[in-house]
Write a structure and sequence with these properties.
Radius of gyration: 20 Å
Oligomer: single chain
Number of strands: 7
CATH class of the largest domain: Alpha Beta
CATH superfamily of the largest domain: Vaccinia Virus protein VP39
Order of helices and strands: HEHEHHEHEEHHEEHHHH
Bound molecules: S-adenosylmethionine
Helix content: 40-55%
Structural class: alpha/beta
CATH architecture of the largest domain: 3-Layer(aba) Sandwich
CATH topology of the largest domain: Rossmann fold
Strand order of the largest sheet: 3-2-1-4-5-7-6
Distance between the termini: 26 Å
Length: 277
């Protein structure tokens, strides 16, 4: 099970994004979807189920789902393991940085994108789509920036006066006004490791005017990670040490060995203690 799936807040935010996608797709017959699945694939499975439902029971939908992964080990892992999603004819999986490639791959005018960076944000021009289309763009990233050189100077400056989340929204505002986007929601929560911001902008009035029944934006949004007591066999321990030493993505290690972030930290501490990492 993916570590992300045990996080109640993240699951709830993802659920909201699925509801927004439902509304977005409901009155269209052609859509492109862009996403960063990591090792979760929950949102992507939802999008595919929506597509199946539409074509079996509803009005025909043409949909292409384009997923990006910049980390090679995570990409290879998914190619091996996630054929349930990747074998679909309308799914592409690209081992590239999304900001370098997304324009190339979207086929339709109507685009729904969720850039779930989780960690450090990437900032790029919103105008990658064809001007006439309806768009929904969702961004998730930490507001605790370790590498400040990637964050636009205007945001860093503004963040001296307002919260980092507000500074990000302020930064996007003129671009949104110019392109006819409106803010649908902005949710701040505490992720497993750091403060997170998830916000959604759109130029689709049907999406904006729908009632998602988000009544309690101030609900306690502290990530609660369900800890499962897992006894790791000795042979697996060796595998985890080897995986850590060879630099495999930590999410992949957690999924592969079914361990949580605390157990991973214990393995890292062991290697550090013995000077092997
Ligand atoms: C947080 S995970 C996605 C989780 C998933 N969306 C979910 O619902 O839980 C983010 C993934 O995107 C990848 N990633 C981060 N920034 C990226 C970028 N700029 N281009 C492509 N992949 C990126 C990371 O390597 C990671 O595997």
């Amino acid at each position: 099970m993916s570590p992300c799936m045990n996080n109640t807040v993240k699951n709830s935010v993802r659920h909201l994004i699925c509801k927004v996608y439902d509304q977005f797709a409901s009155n269209k017959d052609k859509v492109s979807v862009l996403s960063l699945p990591g090792t979760s694939w929950e949102f992507e499975k939802y999008v595919l189920n929506n597509y199946g439902f539409r074509n079996l029971f509803g009005s025909q939908l043409e949909m292409d789902l384009v997923c990006f992964e910049r980390d090679h080990a995570t990409y290879e892992y998914n190619v091996e393991e996630r054929y349930d999603v990747l074998d679909n004819h309308n799914v592409s999986y690209i081992n590239e940085h999304v900001e370098q490639a997304m324009e190339v791959y979207t086929q339709q005018e109507n685009v729904f994108s969720w850039f779930d960076f989780c960690g450090q944000p990437s900032f790029f021009d919103l105008d990658y789509h064809r001007a006439t289309g309806k768009q929904v763009q969702v961004f998730t990233f930490t507001t605790n920036w370790r590498r400040r050189e990637n964050v636009p100077a205007a945001i860093l400056e503004d963040a001296k006066k307002v919260s980092p989340a507000q500074a990000i929204l302020n930064y996007f505002k003129p671009l949104m006004d110019e392109r006819g986007y409106h803010l649908l929601f902005a949710i701040e929560y505490v992720g497993v490791k750091s403060p997170m911001l998830c916000f959604c902008i759109t130029n689709d009035h049907d999406v904006l005017n729908h009632n998602y029944k988000v009544e309690n934006m101030n609900a306690k949004k502290q990530a609660s990670v369900v800890t499962q007591k897992t006894i790791i066999p000795k042979t697996n321990k060796q595998g985890i040490y080897e995986a850590l030493k060879s630099g495999i993505n930590e999410s992949v290690i957690m999924v592969t060995y079914g361990i949580n972030i605390h157990q991973l930290a214990a393995h890292k501490a062991w290697l550090t203690m013995w000077g092997q990492w």
